[in-house]
Amino acid sequence: MGKEPERKRDAASAVPGKEKPSRLARHRREEARLRKRLALSLSAILVAAFCVGSLLDLPVLNFPRGAWRWLRERVASSGGNEGGETERYLFQVHPQSGKKLGDTVSVLLGVTGSREAEDGEDLLYLALFTFRPDRGELEVYVIPEMLMTYDASGKPVRLRESLRGEKGEDLLRSTVGNLSGAGVDYLVLCDFPEAVLTAQSLGLPPVLLEEEARFLDPLTGERQTVLAGQRIGDADRLLYHLLATDRPDYWDGYFQRVERLKGYLPGALQALSEAEGGGTLEDLLGHGGRTILVPGTGSAPRDAAYVASMLKAAVRAAGREIPCRGVPRVEVLNGCGVPELGRKVGGRLADMGIPLGDTGRNAKTVVNGEEVNDFSYQESLIICRSVDPRVKAFARYLGVQLSVREVREEPGAGAEVVLIAGRDLST
Predict the structure, then answer these.
(1) Would you state the pLDDT for residue 105?
(2) 282 falls in which pLDDT band (50, 70, 90)?
């Protein structure tokens, strides 16, 4: 009986797979388990780090987002012109989220200069470029830098001074978006020296003057005179001619700028489309001046590539009609009979940077088939007679500026925006 347990141990040791592992084998298994755990831990840490980097768009840790963005752009560019599909431009992809923007993309271009401002640069020129890349269309809306807005504290500031305060770029984008009726997807700020050097690098065509022109250097205020029959080819004088005038009235100069751009832009884009060496557009920026893209990519070369893609899309519009317009003039009617109220309200609008039409007439109504004065307006009213979305948005912007609650759309002839001044504006 004493040998029975020993027989059982011998029998167990003889069963296949029941061998007792050696000390060396157990050690190797432990090392394998340790390496596996270490690899899993490192993988988890890297995945977590890249997820955080992508969510926060951290410069070093956003590799997955950048890789996905790069792959998507390569696929879009490789298949963009096949099967009749239209070209895709870099700026159609949001530089931070990687999402494709809509069919319409709006770019606000601002040219800045010091103007001896101690607390920041002033805006010398503003224009909203609206692209419809899939259709090769471009529209330009020249924004008056003298219009008013309100900063975060409620203080009134002109658009030309909006960059001086905190979050000035956001204030500028939101205000232009409101008064134009278009969400501003990009803000491109270019200082005047950079604008001159860029114009030189593009080789913009000269302007042949049919009559004598006088204009002011927007930085120094020096007067420039060009005689009829001369060509303006120097980049600096070319920009002075397009961006500034010496008209004594600001609004006369503003509408003159709109007309000059309207006459110059189609020919300039046509010349650029026919020029050789279009690849140099990738080196558009970095001439020694300063250009800011908002929202940016975090990389100066990539920001330059975005701006270059905007210019390429503009060049594609060559040969098409390019609408180029400015804000409408506002007609003011006396709607309550207070003497000279139209002119007084017109002066208030002028102080706010609003372009004026006629201010000396009374509101009218028809009684028994006869037109008579209508002085029944206790509260002011704004009438928009245009179906243009830009004009409608400007009418709403005017209502906010004057605290006029009713903005009515009544398409018809006459001034595009009419303000009937009621008794609420007489005090």
Answers:
(1) 96
(2) low
Q: What is the residue range of 253's domain?
A: 95-326
Is 377 found in the same domain as 308?
A: no
* pLDDT (tens digit per residue) in 154-192: 899 999 999 988 889 999 999 999 999 989 999 999 988
Contacts of 422 by beta carbon, 8 Å cutoff, 6+ apart:
335, 336, 377, 378, 379, 380, 381
The verdict on 367 and 353 lying in the same domain is yes
424 neighbors 378 (Cβ within 8 angstroms)? yes
Q: How many CB atoms lie within 10 A of CB 86?
A: 12
Bridge-based pairing of strands 417-421 and 330-334 is: parallel
Distances (CA, A) of 334 to 106, 363, 373, 419, 426: 37, 6, 9, 9, 10
Token pair belonging to 287: 């001439």
> Do 395 and 273 lie in a common domain?
no
| Assigned token pair, 357 | 């039409």
Q: What is the pLDDT of residue 54?
A: 58
Residues counted in the chain: 427
Reply yes or no on whether the pLDDT at 148 is more than 80: yes
How many domains does one find in the chain? Answer: 2
Is the same domain home to 316 and 334? Answer: no
Residues 362 and 307 both lie in one domain = no
CA separation for the pair 344, 348 (Å, rounded): 6
* Burial (Cβ within 10 Å: 0-12, 13-18, ≥19) of residue 342: buried
Rounded CA separation 179/95 (Å): 25
Burial of 230 (0-12, 13-18, 19+ CB in 10 A): middle
pLDDT digits (tens, 9 = 90+) for 232-255: 888 888 888 888 776 667 888 899
Q: Encoding tokens for residue 59? A: 């410069």
Same structural domain for residues 396 and 261? no
Cβ count within 10 A of residue 325: 15
Q: What is the pTM of this model?
A: 0.77
Q: Three-state SS for 365?
A: strand
Domain end point (choices 278, 295, 326): 326
**11 in a domain, yes or no?**
no
Verify that 265 and 320 share a domain, yes or no.
yes
CA–CA gap between residue 297 and residue 311 (Å, rounded): 18
pLDDT tens digit string along 390-406?
999 999 999 999 999 99
The predicted structure's pLDDT at residue 287: 54
- The percentage of the chain sitting over the pLDDT mark of 90, rounded to a whole number, equals 43
What's the chain's average pLDDT? 82
Q: Which amino acid is at 424?
A: D
Position 38 in a domain? no
